[in-house]
Design goal:
With 391 residues, the chain is mainly α. The protein contains 12 helices and 11 strands.
């Protein structure tokens, strides 16, 4: 017990130092765009600007982070000022006349890509909800609720929305939609006191377990047929272990609120299962994608690479699992992932490099947006401080 408590306390101190002394100062120094508004995040590891386009996807993520820092960690005025700054940019530039959030702008705020991704709407909604929670800004809440109405209507009308930068195979649906929007909606419903929005989130959460879990493989897959059936194809067998692990801690956070302990236990077991599936026994780290039947290359770019985000999401997931089970495997995996991540990703600037090859030695280019977001890493650290503090 003493050894366990010591590890938890050392980890909590490590995460707090990483967040407050390294990651957040990086973004305060390099991300605050005082000329054009919002956050600049097409950056290299040292903070040098590589591009000036603005992705609403990233602006919504950054709004969540700086709002959560102020509302959940410490009420530092500089964090609130950054959140206010991003909020003003979003409300001035982010939506079109139909209430849809656009995808990409140039530095002057001109639209380069319109509403080609409903994920941009989701991240804006999530950021606005957290900003309201931190500040009580009623206009932000109204905008979040309007975004719920807009996205919920489209999610119930397949084909009415895009999912850039990802594509959906014909005749299939992706895990990413119920994964993201279950978490976003349930959180908004809780903050706004709206049971109907919580129920929408819960419905999507159940869809993940009911539609994307394949019992014969004991795994979640990235795509299933529109009729909810497993497809024995390259696309249908594709699994992103980190994506699954992230989804499972989202579900754990929802089902613990609804008191469904059987589903919480299922999620905890599946967290362990996907860690075992994704871990690279030769080089360490969680690989990006795999074929659940081991039949070759999955239908995903750079499947053997090691992005930072599966590692940090797995840290949160194992902490959640330990909170609910108190089983040794949770902290054993947490320690293994922590050792690998903290020995491979941190760089001298205070941020982390984002994409490494399978060996963990060489950087590779992202398969999605050309950005460095203040999201997966700081969000994970914020959640870890809360979970470990509660232990």
């Amino acid at each position: 017990m003493e050894e366990t408590e010591g590890f938890i306390e050392r980890s909590r101190r490590l995460y707090r130092k990483t967040l407050l002394e390294q990651v957040v100062p990086f973004w305060m120094k390099h991300g605050f765009d005082r000329t054009h508004g919002g956050i600049s995040n097409i950056l290299d590891d040292e903070g040098s600007l590589l591009g000036t386009d603005k992705y609403i996807w990233s602006q919504g993520r950054a709004l969540w982070t700086f709002s959560a820092l102020y509302g959940r960690v410490e009420k530092r005025p500089e964090w609130l000022a950054f959140a206010d700054h991003i909020y003003r940019y979003l409300t001035s530039h982010g939506r079109d006349s139909r209430g849809r959030w656009v995808f990409r702008l140039d530095e002057a705020g001109n639209v380069l890509d319109a509403d080609i991704s409903i994920y941009a709407d989701g991240f804006a909604l999530n950021g606005l909800a957290e900003y309201y929670s931190a500040t009580g800004n009623e206009d932000a809440l109204k905008l979040a609720l309007d975004t719920f109405d807009n996205t919920w209507a489209r999610l119930n009308s397949p084909g009415s929305y895009g999912t850039a930068p990802h594509t959906i195979p014909a005749g299939m649906k992706p895990l990413g939609i119920p994964m993201a929007f279950s978490f976003f909606y349930y959180g908004l419903g809780k903050i706004a006191g709206r049971s109907d929005i919580r129920e929408a989130g819960l419905r999507l959460a159940r869809e993940i377990i009911e539609d994307f879990y394949v019992p014969e493989r004991d795994a979640l897959v990235e795509f299933v047929a529109l009729d909810r059936k497993f497809v024995n194809s390259r696309e249908g067998r594709t699994c992103l272990p980190g994506h699954c692990i992230e989804a499972l801690w989202f579900l754990t956070s929802i089902f613990e609120e609804t008191g469904e302990e059987d589903l919480v236990r299922t999620c905890c077991r599946l967290i362990r299962r996907h860690l075992e599936l994704g871990w690279d026994e030769e080089y360490g780290g969680i690989r990006l994608a795999l074929d659940v039947d081991g039949k070759g290359e999955p239908a995903w770019k750079n499947p053997d690479c090691k992005p930072w985000w599966p590692q940090v999401e797995a840290l949160v997931a194992t902490a959640y699992a330990y909170r609910h089970t108190r089983e040794d495997w949770c902290l054993e995996w947490h320690r293994r992932i922590q050792d690998w991540a903290f020995s491979h990703y941190p760089v001298s600037s205070g941020e982390w490099t984002n994409w490494l090859d399978r060996t963990g030695r060489q950087k590779v280019r992202s398969g999605a947006l050309p950005v460095k977001d203040p999201f997966h890493l700081p969000r994970s650290l914020i959640y870890l401080l809360d979970i470990l503090g509660g232990l």
